[in-house]
Structure formats: structure tokens, C-alpha cells
Amino acid sequence: MDAPLDGKIILVTGAAGEIGTASAALMARRGGRIVAVDRPGRDFSSLRRAVDGDLLAIEADVTDEASVRDYVARALALAGRIDVFFNNAGIDGPIARIADYGIEDFRKVMAVNVEGVFLGLRHVLPVMLGQGFGSIVNSSSASGLTGSPGMWGYNASKHAVVGLTRVAATEAAPHGVRVNCINPGPIRSRMIGRLDETIGSSEAKRSRGIPARRYGTVEEVAGLVAFLASDDCPYINGAVHSIDGGLTAI
Ligand SMILES: NC(=O)c1ccc[n+]([C@@H]2O[C@H](COP(=O)([O-])OP(=O)(O)OC[C@H]3O[C@@H](n4cnc5c(N)ncnc54)[C@H](O)[C@@H]3O)[C@@H](O)[C@H]2O)c1
């Protein structure tokens, strides 16, 4: 099998989650060396099983700048460079009508999904600008392009990730660095399972509104992440990549 990510140092946040694990596993199979970041206390064991090879696991809260500085320093210590950054940690938060959606819940979602992504960019991007190469993939969502009732924090935060991606790309592109975001629609995962439970829905019901008539899989998302991480797409920069079975094309 070809190894388009051969020898690359690949930093992944939210790595112990479902999309993070599938992406880390695929990028490791394609030759990358994975530096996996997830929140303190998170179980890394299924990630370790999925990534068959060398894995540096780091417990860090992406909302804490000192921890971000530390995970970047530890990734850099491996080979003096960071080739790929999958800026992926995220939470969904509650679903509630505006009068019931508390400001603390809103702040919590914004802290992880926006400030966490911003802090990752703030500490990884200068490294890549100094190197003159690198690829960053931010995790937005179809919810970063559309509105859904009750998802105040999540939708707002994922729109912000699109904005951060575009700003970052304009600073990065002149220096040979790429910054893109991915915008998955519903993917078969715990996050979507919980959401469906909360709104009393299911894949069968919601798929009627998706042109592909099904949810996506974490492996499909991983394929997009690995492509954007690779050197196969040097002119793709600042772009918003829907992976949603046509959901946002309607
Ligand atoms: N699952 C989907 O259908 C879907 C769709 C669109 C976008 N996304 C986005 O993709 C990303 C990954 O989603 P997933 O389905 O793998 O979810 P997940 O819950 O399985 O993974 C998210 C990971 O982020 C970690 N995390 C949360 N807060 C953190 C913090 N403060 N510091 C460090 N790590 C933290 C969690 O511990 C978890 O391991 C998220 O940003 C999510 O919003 C998911």
C-alpha cells in the first residue's frame, strides 16, 4: 500500500473520540506518526488499539492555553516539526429553546469548539509558518453552514470554525501552509446517537432528508482528513469541505 503520509508528524486533538480515532488510525496506516491529544481522564485504550504503531498520547484540555503550549512543544520535540494538525476536539452541548439555553452552556460549547480551535491555531500555525509547510484541518460541521433548532452553541461555534479557517488560510497560504475545514453531516457516532435520542429521531427517520439516504461513517470522514493532510492537494486552501451525503446541497 502507498504511504502518502510517510514520516509525517501528525497532531490530532479529540483523538480518543470517534472521528479522531478513525482519522488517526488511517493516517498512521498511511505512514504518519500520531501525537494524540484528548482531555484529562479520557480513556485512550481504544485509540491505542486502533493506531497500530507508535503513538504519543497527551492529556490536555484544549481550552487551557498552557496545556496547548505543552502539547505543541511535546509534538515538536519528536522531530522538530509538525506536518499535520487535525484540530478536531469538540462538544455538542444541549439542545433547548432560546429561553432555556443557559449562558453557561453556551460559553462551555464556545470555549471548546471556538477557543480550543483558536488556541490550537495560535500555537501550531506559527510553527508551520516558520517551517514553510504544513496542513491544518479544522473540524467544523454541516451545522457550521446551516441552522438547526435549539443548537445555539453548537451551530454558532461551528460557523465560527469556518471563519477561523478562512482567516488562518489567508495568513498561512503565502507561506506554503494550508488550512481547511471539514463539515460532516450526521455521522454514525455517539454524538449523533445522543442527538437523535434527545430529539426523538433516528438514522432511518432523518435519512429521508439526506440525498444519500443514510448517515456517513467515521471512516469516510477519516478519508477526507487524510487527503487534506497529504501533499496530494497543494492548492486546496481555506476551503470548506462538506461531507454530508448532499445534505447541504439541498
Ligand atoms: N459525529 C458527527 O456526526 C459529527 C458531525 C459533524 C462534526 N463533528 C465534529 O467532529 C469532531 C469529532 O466528533 P466525534 O463524533 O468524534 O465526537 P467525540 O465526542 O467522539 O470526540 C470528541 C473528542 O473531543 C474530546 N474533547 C472534548 N472536550 C475537550 C477538551 N476540552 N480538551 C480536549 N479534548 C476534548 C472528547 O474527549 C472526545 O474524545 C467534533 O468537533 C464534532 O463537533 C462530528
Automatic annotation (TrEMBL):
<keyword id="KW-0560">Oxidoreductase</keyword>
<dbReference type="InterPro" id="IPR057326">
    <property type="entry name" value="KR_dom"/>
</dbReference>
<dbReference type="InterPro" id="IPR036291">
    <property type="entry name" value="NAD(P)-bd_dom_sf"/>
</dbReference>
<protein>
    <submittedName>
        <fullName>SDR family oxidoreductase</fullName>
    </submittedName>
</protein>
<dbReference type="InterPro" id="IPR020904">
    <property type="entry name" value="Sc_DH/Rdtase_CS"/>
</dbReference>
<dbReference type="GO" id="GO:0016491">
    <property type="term" value="F:oxidoreductase activity"/>
</dbReference>
<dbReference type="Pfam" id="PF13561">
    <property type="entry name" value="adh_short_C2"/>
</dbReference>
<feature type="domain" description="Ketoreductase">
    <location>
        <begin position="8"/>
        <end position="190"/>
    </location>
</feature>
<comment type="similarity">
    <text>Belongs to the short-chain dehydrogenases/reductases (SDR) family.</text>
</comment>
<keyword id="KW-0520">NAD</keyword>
<dbReference type="InterPro" id="IPR002347">
    <property type="entry name" value="SDR_fam"/>
</dbReference>
